[in-house]
Amino acid sequence: MGSKKKELALQVNISSQELWEEMLSSKGLTVVDVYQGWCGPCKPVVSLFQKMKIEFGLDLLHFALAEADCLDVLEKYRGKCEPTFLFYAGGELVAVVRGANAPLLQKTILDQLEAEKKVLAEGRERKVIKDEALSDEEECFSHEKDDGEDEDVVSSEKTCTLAIIKPDAVVHGKTDEIIVKIQEAGFDILTHEERIMTEAEMRLFYQHRAGEIFEKLVYHMCSGPSHLLILTRTEDTKDVVTAWRDLMGPCDPNVARREQPESLRAQYGTEMPFNAVHGSRDREDANRELALLFPSFKFSDEDTKAFQGAAAEGAVSPTEAYCVPEDMNQDAVLFF
Predict the structure, then answer these.
(1) Does residue 278 have an active-site annotation?
(2) Is the separation of the CB atoms in 81 and 223 below 8 Å?
(3) For the structural domain made of 7-131, what CATH number should be given?
(4) Does residue 273 have a cis bond before it (omega within 30 degrees)?
(5) Which of 312, 321, 218, 228 is nearest to 273 (CA)?
(6) Which residues are bridge partners to 34 per DSSP?
(7) How far apart are CA 193 and CA 325, in angstroms?
(8) d(CA 303, CA 242)
(9) Mind spelling out the 3-state secondary structure of 189-232?
(10) Per annotation, catalytic residue among 192, 208, 220, 278
C-alpha cells in the first residue's frame, strides 16, 4: 500500500483542463506522460522518475499523467502507439520524448532542468518548441516568407534527402534516440512527420525490388507508424544524400556491425529487412522519393534543375522513374 501511495504522489493525474493549466503553471520543469486509455501510463519509467525526484527534490521537478482522450488540448496525441512525454516550463513546451527510452528521458530531464534553473536564476530566455504532432498538417512544409515567396518552399538554396525511421525502430522506442544522433551528425530536419504508410505507396516505393523480399518490405513498412524526415545539411561540403547514407551504414545490419559498428543500422537494426532506417540511393532518387511521399514539397532551385534534366533525359515522371531495368543486378539496388 505504501509504494502505491508513493507512485500516486509521484505523478499527478491531470483529469481536467483546469488541472492541466494549474500543473503547467508550476514553477520549474513539469514532465507529462501522455498515455492512451487502452494501454495505460508508462510503468517502466516510474522508477527513474522516483530516483530523479529524490535526487532533485520537490521544488523544481514535477511529474504528471494525462490521458489523451480526456483533454482537448491533447487531441492530436490520441491513438499514438508509443508513450509521449511532454516537457513544460513556464507553461511552455520545451521538449518532447517519444518512447520509453530511459537514458534519453534522463538526459532530457537533466538538460531541461538545468536550462530552467538558468531561466529562473539568471533571466535567460526560455527555448520554446512546437511539437509537430500538435501542428496543422500544412505547417509541415511552412517556413518564413521572404518577399512573398511561396511558403511551401522549404528552402531555395538547400538540397534535401529523405530519411525514414522504420516501424521496427519506432515500435522499440528508438525514434528520439535516432533523431538525436541525426542532429548531432550535423543534419538539419526541415520536416518531421509520423505516418502509417499505405500498401499502395509502398508497392510503388519498393517496386525496384522483386520476389519475396518485395512482399516482406511492403508488409513491414505498412505494419506500424514510420517517421518521415526531410534532411538537409549546411555545415559540410559533403552531399546530404551521401552523408545520410554514411550515417546509416550498410543495408544489412549484420554487415553494418562488422564494417561500421557506429552506424545507425549497426546500432538499431536487427536483421533484414528490419534495418531501422531508410535512405535514398542518390540525389535523383531522393527527389523522386520526396515527390512520391511529399507531393506538396518543392525542391530547391538546384534540385529542380537536376530533377527536370533527369526526367527529360529519360522522358519519365517521378513515379515511372522508380522502375529498374530487368537486366540490372538486383544487388546494385539495395537501398531500402
Answers:
(1) yes
(2) no
(3) 3.40.30.10
(4) yes
(5) 218
(6) 66, 84
(7) 32
(8) 15
(9) EEEEEEECCCHHHHHHHCCCCCCHHHHHHHHHHCCCCEEEEEEE
(10) 278
Q: HEC string of the chain?
A: CHHHHHHHHHEEEECCHHHHHHHHCCCCEEEEEEECCCCCCCHHHHHHHHHHHHHHCCCCEEEEEEEHHHCHHHHHHCCCCCCEEEEEECCEEEEEEECCCHHHHHHHHHHHHHHHHHHHHHCCCCCCCCCHHHCCHHHHHCCCCCCCCCCCECCCCCCCEEEEECHHHHHCCCHHHHHHHHHHCCEEEEEEEEECCCHHHHHHHCCCCCCHHHHHHHHHHCCCCEEEEEEEECCCCCCHHHHHHHHHCCCCHHHHHHHCCCCHHHHHCCECCECCEEECCCHHHHHHHHHHHCCCCECCHHHHHHHHHHHHHHCCCCCHHHCCCCCCCHHHHCCC
- The Cα–Cα gap between 263 and 242 comes to 14
Nearest CA among 38, 42, 34, 33 for reference residue 63: 33
Cell digits of residue 180: 538525436
Domain boundaries, the chain: 7-131, 158-333
Residue indicated by cell numbers 530511459: 102
**Of 225, 41, 62, which Cα lies nearest the Cα of 133?**
225
Distances in Å between the alpha carbon of 169 and those of 105, 143, 222? 17, 29, 13
Measured CA distances, 276 to 60, 273, 322 (Å)? 37, 8, 22
In whole angstroms, what is the distance from residue 254 CA to residue 252 CA? 5
CA nearest neighbour of 85 among 53, 131, 21: 131
The set of cell numbers assigned to 177 is: 534516440
Question: CA 141, CA 153: separation in Å to the nearest integer?
Answer: 7
Mean pLDDT score across all residues of the chain:
76
Q: Which fold has domain 158-333?
A: Alpha-Beta Plaits (3.30.70)
Q: What is the pLDDT of residues 280-322, one digit of tens each?
A: 888 888 888 888 888 766 655 455 444 444 444 443 343 333 3
Quick: pLDDT tens for 249-268. 998 999 999 999 999 999 99
